[in-house]
């Protein structure tokens, strides 16, 4: 007896496939990605902890050559740096888990104060740099796509490589040499001139983002001064990312320009410029948003060199000072915060990417 | 759809451009705005609390905002009572200070002997790893019998360095109402509570960034009334940025620490003036008595031959050439363990070695080695540090090597090591001879003798080079407890002569203090106290 065509042998074993997901769901994906941040941070904090101990203690760095070895040892002992390194590690981790970042050794400041005070400066620089990167990278990328395979495209592609490949400190020094020293147009270093900085130091409840503080008190002279000081560091750091954006926009736009809906527009007589700036641009923007998140990590790295070159008193500038002083408490605190920022940014980027394209979860 | 956004972007760019163009003339800031003076430095502040800092950057601030019992007038390095009417030994182990009446801190708190006792007691009890408590090693106890009298009871008799100690990083007087008795107090609290009673008080404070000083009218000490009401102190991490700012007029004075080439370059600018003063920094070579050629633990120990090697090296180095070519005159040759500018400082090595006038003499070096029966060339291993004594150390020691080898008497193996390793290795006799430098804690010749050469027990001196001389110990004990200045001077000179004869170290250079100021700034005072005087400057 044959089975009727409409009869199913075992309906339970053969459920309908419509809507079935072969991998994990979005919720699970987000949870796993969030949990992955913990071991990442743990490994980083551990590495920094032990590496900082390898390069020496702050007492020897500051007092060596002034005290006898016995006095030096006495001070190292008093500070507890001669205890077993694992004891110091677990003590540090215990404090960290309680949210206590400690007090810097070399200048007796709470690490949280250092983070809030100087983190704002780094944030301000990164914002300026992103603006520079967008203003420079996107239009030039569009221009390169518009002029694809012609000489302006070639020039812009080379420029993009130069932006990306030039070490940020070198670019900074070059900009300083040209615009500050030779031409004298812009300040050499710092975030504001002395008088304006004193005014901004006196602001009640400061954001420590100088531009915002200057705008809040309505001091236009200070606003201009702050922007003047920001131009060169922002360009030095922003061009690094501008190079990435330029190439990305160009590549995506060229890809989008070959798609049916653009061809359709072209056949309707829409001009090439209009196609690039209106029709193809928006679909090409998605990957840039994703990359922008990841570029923040790169910018934080670049900020260390930019801030040091321009005396921009942010976290990057401070970490270089604390490294010189072998101040492990400060360096660990700053690295942890930078790592959290990078990890959270990457997490957000991954989640956005997963929302846009579910394939990344599988 | 995009049009409004593009228009907005163009508008923002336009406004920004306008804002910038409107301010373009102010790239060189007017530091004279408000009649103030702006000084730049690359020094760092460790702590405003005297118990928590033992460094030049912090002492600089303390010298402006805290009163001292003893201080020196601008232009001098001799300790005199500052906020005291008298300060002297009332018996061999008691140093009694009488305070001026009516002293107050900027916050209105009274400054009495109780604050003084508090200041010294907390230094000793806190003994912070970053602090200067080691300078108070001779302090047994502090007593405040009445509001204007302080008695320091000392462990050794007639300690002639004690007035100097009171001028040092251990000596600032702090407000017991504000600072903690048991721990280092935060800068923010000290600034907020105005715990100042020096010539200046801090009006605005951003650590290691920008500090603004305002004249404090309640100060009654020997430094006098500041000539400029407001002085701003700008901190740099990069000396090049400071150099550029003083050149452009963004700051009025650059003090500590510009490199030799920067100073040479700035000296050619018409708008600037280079101010130089005596410097307390000593740069020298240490001989390890165990591991140097013919040292006690070498393959062929012979103290006489080891001494001959040291002497021949002293005959061969050309200090003036190093000072001129490497340091462009920012250092000067030194021919003694005690640099010039201190009581009793002499130059015994100038006549004893080389051409007898400070210059090198290869023939004399050859004779010294030949007389001692030493075959040449003598192999030397000289170690220097690449990151602690400035970038020019490499050039300095390259020149030392070149000078020694040019005599044909030495073959030098020159090596450098980073500071952390260097510090540990040097006291383990790893380096037969090596570079060191020294900044004094206070302006007294003893600070170049006791820490270096006093070895009542092995390992006492920080040099750790196994040099030990009973004669030297006696001389140091004598000079450090001799109240009679003339007799003390004699002992100090004798100690220097003994160093020249025995050569446990080979002094090379003495640092100069250098400040670069705009020509319209007057009163830049660089004296042997090594304290930079903000209050003497004006424009």
TrEMBL record, chain A:
Residues 119-353 form the ABC transmembrane type-1 domain. Signal peptide: none annotated. It is found in: Cell membrane. Gene3D superfamilies: MetI-like. InterPro entries: BPD_transp_1_N (IPR045621), MetI-like (IPR000515), MetI-like_sf (IPR035906). SUPFAM superfamilies: MetI-like. It is a multi-pass membrane protein. One of its GO terms (biological process) is transmembrane transport. It holds the Pfam family BPD_transp_1_N. GO terms for cellular component: plasma membrane. Residues 1-20 are annotated as: Disordered. This is Peptide/nickel transport system permease protein. Belongs to the binding-protein-dependent transport system permease family. The chain crosses the membrane at residues 30-55, 125-146, 158-185, 230-249, 284-305, 328-356. Keywords: Cell membrane, Membrane, Transmembrane, Transmembrane helix, Transport.
TrEMBL record, chain B:
One of its GO terms (cellular component) is ATP-binding cassette (ABC) transporter complex. It is found in: Cell membrane. Pfam families: SBP_bac_5 (PF00496). It is a lipid-anchor. Coiled coil: none annotated. InterPro entries: Peptide/Ni-bd (IPR030678), SBP_5 (IPR039424), SBP_5_CS (IPR023765), SBP_5_dom (IPR000914). Residues 78-457 form the Solute-binding protein family domain. GO terms for molecular function: peptide transmembrane transporter activity. One of its GO terms (biological process) is peptide transport. Residues 1-21 form the signal peptide. Keywords: Signal, Transport. Its main location: membrane. Belongs to the bacterial solute-binding protein 5 family. This is Peptide/nickel transport system substrate-binding protein. The lineage of its organism: Bacteria, Bacillati, Actinomycetota, Actinomycetes, Micrococcales.
């Amino acid at each position: 007896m044959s089975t009727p065509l409409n009869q199913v042998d075992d309906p339970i074993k053969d459920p309908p496939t419509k809507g079935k997901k072969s991998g994990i769901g979005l919720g699970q994906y987000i949870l796993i990605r969030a949990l992955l941040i913990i071991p990442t941070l743990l490994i980083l904090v551990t590495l920094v902890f032990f590496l900082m101990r390898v390069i020496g203690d702050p007492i020897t760095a500051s007092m060596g050559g002034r005290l006898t070895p016995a006095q030096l040892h006495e001070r190292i002992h008093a500070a507890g740096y001669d205890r077993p390194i694992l004891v110091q590690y677990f003590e540090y981790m215990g404090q960290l888990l309680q949210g206590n970042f400690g007090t810097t050794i070399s200048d007796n400041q709470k690490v949280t104060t250092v983070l809030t005070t100087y983190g704002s400066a780094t944030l301000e620089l990164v914002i300026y740099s992103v603006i520079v990167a967008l203003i420079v990278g996107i239009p030039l990328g569009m221009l390169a796509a518009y002029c694809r395979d012609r000489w302006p495209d070639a020039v812009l592609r080379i420029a993009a490589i130069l932006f990306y490949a030039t070490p940020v400190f070198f670019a900074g020094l070059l900009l300083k040499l040209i615009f500050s020293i030779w031409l004298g147009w812009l300040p050499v270093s710092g975030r504001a001139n002395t008088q304006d900085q004193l005014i901004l130091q006196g602001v009640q409840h400061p954001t420590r983002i100088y531009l915002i503080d200057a705008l809040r008190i309505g001091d236009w002279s200070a606003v201009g001064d702050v922007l003047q000081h920001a131009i060169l560091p922002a360009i030095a750091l922003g061009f690094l990312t501008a190079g990435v954006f330029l190439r990305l926009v160009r590549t995506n736009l060229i890809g989008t320009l070959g798609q049916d809906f653009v061809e359709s527009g072209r056949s309707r007589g829409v001009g090439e410029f209009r196609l690039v700036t209106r029709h193809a641009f928006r679909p090409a923007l998605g990957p840039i948003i994703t990359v922008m998140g990841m570029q923040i990590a790169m910018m934080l790295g670049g900020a260390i060199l930019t801030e040091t070159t321009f005396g921009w008193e942010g976290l990057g500038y401070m970490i270089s000072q604390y490294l010189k002083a072998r101040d492990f408490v400060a360096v660990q605190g700053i690295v942890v915060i930078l790592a959290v920022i990078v990890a959270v940014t990457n997490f957000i980027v991954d989640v956005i990417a997963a929302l846009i394209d579910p394939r990344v979860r599988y | 759809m995009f049009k409004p956004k593009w228009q907005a972007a163009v508008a923002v760019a336009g406004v920004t451009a306008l804002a910038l163009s409107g301010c373009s003339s102010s790239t060189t800031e007017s530091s004279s705005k408000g009649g103030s003076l702006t000084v730049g430095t690359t020094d760092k502040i460790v702590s405003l609390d005297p118990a928590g800092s033992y460094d030049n950057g912090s002492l600089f601030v303390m010298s402006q905002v805290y009163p001292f019992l003893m201080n020196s007038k601008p232009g001098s390095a001799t300790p005199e009572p500052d906020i005291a009417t008298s300060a002297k030994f009332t018996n061999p182990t008691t140093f009694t200070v009488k305070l001026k009446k009516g002293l107050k801190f900027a916050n209105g708190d009274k400054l009495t002997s109780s604050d003084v006792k508090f200041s010294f007691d907390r230094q000793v009890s806190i003994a912070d790893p970053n602090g200067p408590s080691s300078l108070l090693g001779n302090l047994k106890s502090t007593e405040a019998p009445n509001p204007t009298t302080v008695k320091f009871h000392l462990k050794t008799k007639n300690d002639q360095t004690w007035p100097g100690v009171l001028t040092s990083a251990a000596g600032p007087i702090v407000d017991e109402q504000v600072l903690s008795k048991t721990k280092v107090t935060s800068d923010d609290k000290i600034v907020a509570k105005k715990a100042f009673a020096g010539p200046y008080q801090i009006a605005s404070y951003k650590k290691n960034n920008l500090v603004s000083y305002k004249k404090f009218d309640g100060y009654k000490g020997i430094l006098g009334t500041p000539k400029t009401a407001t002085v701003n102190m700008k901190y740099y991490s990069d000396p090049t940025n400071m150099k550029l700012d003083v050149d452009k007029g963004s700051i009025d004075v650059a003090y500590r620490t510009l490199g030799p080439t920067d100073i040479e370059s700035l000296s050619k600018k018409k708008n600037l003036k280079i101010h130089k003063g005596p410097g307390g920094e000593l740069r020298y070579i240490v001989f390890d008595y165990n591991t140097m050629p013919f040292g006690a633990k070498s393959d062929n120990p012979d103290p006489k031959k080891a001494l001959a090697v040291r002497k021949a090296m002293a005959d061969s180095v050309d200090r003036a050439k190093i000072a001129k070519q490497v340091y462009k005159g920012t250092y000067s040759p030194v021919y003694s363990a005690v640099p010039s500018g201190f009581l009793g400082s002499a130059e015994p090595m100038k006549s004893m070695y080389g051409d007898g006038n400070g210059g090198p003499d290869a023939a004399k070096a050859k004779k010294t080695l030949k007389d001692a029966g030493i075959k040449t060339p003598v192999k030397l291993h000289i170690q220097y540090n690449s990151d602690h004594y400035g970038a020019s150390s490499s050039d300095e020691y390259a020149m030392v090597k070149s000078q020694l080898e040019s005599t044909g008497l030495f073959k030098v193996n020159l090596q450098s090591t980073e500071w952390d390793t260097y510090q540990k290795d040097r006291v383990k006799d790893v380096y037969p001879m090596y570079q060191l430098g020294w900044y004094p804690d206070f302006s007294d010749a003893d600070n170049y003798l006791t820490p270096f050469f006093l070895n009542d027990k092995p390992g006492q001196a920080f040099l750790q080079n196994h040099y030990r001389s009973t004669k030297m110990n006696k001389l140091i004990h004598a000079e450090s407890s001799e109240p009679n200045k003339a007799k003390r001077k004699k002992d100090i000179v004798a100690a220097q002569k003994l160093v020249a004869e025995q050569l446990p170290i080979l002094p090379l250079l003495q640092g100069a203090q250098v400040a670069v100021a705009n020509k319209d700034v007057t009163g830049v005072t660089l004296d042997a106290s090594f304290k930079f005087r903000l209050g003497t400057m004006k424009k």
